[in-house]
Amino acid sequence: MSDTKLAGQFFDAAIGLLERVRDEESEAVAAAGAAIADTVAAGGRLFAFGAGHSSLAAQDVVYRAGGLALMNLLAVPGTVGVDVMPATLGSALERVDGLAGAVLDSSPARSGDLLVIISLSGRNALPVEMAQNARALGLTVIGVTSVAYATGTRSRHVSGGFLRDHCDIVLDSKIAIGDAELTTAGVEAPFAPASTVVTSALMQAMMATAAEELVARGIEPPLLRSGNVDGGHEWNGRVMREYGDRIFYRH
């Protein structure tokens, strides 16, 4: 079997998953977009959190062209990516009880804000406690996760619960347990994960819905433009001045 054939199979698998979330998660995406618009309109702040490779989809909606300027990354040191050494430390930190509470207590997040938590499995202590603590503080919590893990694996949190159990709105990425779309003869492990593709698409879909909702309410969505097009820096400067008290990646 050639590499080209496997590449085509991966694209087919990813497209199939995107079609599923488009069709099956439309109500959840609409609810998430409306909640984000509600928060923006009410003067609240927006945060996104993900650990390990789930952090990629969170970073994808923070300080980027075409994105909402108000979306801030809620970072947990050591869990944002593979830059920590050893890389396995990040996975270990996801299982530490109490870490989420400490992070939230020292963050600018407050009642009335909104937090999107991304966790493929949703089974580790960090995302579960992040959701629990955020809701206790009065934040709206949107979870982006694979519900399959909640039915096919055991929780690693003392409560026995998963991320999906502690969210106001849940978006199911439909990713199968193990996050690998392909197998082939001669390769013992399954490979070609699609969670980043699908989760990032869900994030951008909810952002698009939020922009649509804000326009319907007569509010200009606080979007950023590319700094590589004429006028982009000036546009972004205006948006950041107007919403400076709700943007934390500049401080």
Descriptive notes:
Residues 36-221 form the SIS domain. Pfam families: SIS_2. This is UPF0309 protein RM649_11905. InterPro entries: RpiR-like_SIS, SIS_dom, SIS_dom_sf, SIS_GmhA/DiaA_subfam, UPF0309. Belongs to the UPF0309 family. The chain has 251 residues and is of the alpha/beta class. 43% of the residues lie in helices and 9% in strands. It is built from nine helices and five strands. It has helices at residues 3-24, 26-41, 54-59, 88-93, 99-105, 125-136, 147-152, 195-216, 232-242; strands at 46-50, 71-73, 114-118, 140-145, 169-172. The protein has a five-stranded parallel beta sheet with strand order 2-1-3-4-5, sandwiched between helices. Helix 3 links the parallel strand 1 and strand 2. Helix 1 runs parallel beside helix 8 (195-216), helix 2 (26-41) crosses helix 8 and helix 5 packs across helix 6 (125-136). The longest helix is centred in the N-terminal third of the chain and has 22 residues, at 3-24. The protein starts with a helix and ends in a 9-residue tail after the last helix.
Widest beta sheet: strand line-up: 2-1-3-4-5
Radius of gyration: 18 Å
- The coarse overall form would be globular
User: Helical residue percent?
Assistant: 40-55%
The chain-level structural class is alpha/beta
Strand content bin: 5-15%
Summed up, the helix count is 9
Strand count, sense and barrel status of the largest sheet are:
5 strands, parallel
Chain-wise SSE layout:
Blueprint: H1 3-24, H2 26-41, E1 46-50, H3 54-59, E2 71-73, H4 88-93, H5 99-105, E3 114-118, H6 125-136, E4 140-145, H7 147-152, E5 169-172, H8 195-216, H9 232-242
Parallel strand pairs: 1-2, 1-3, 3-4, 4-5
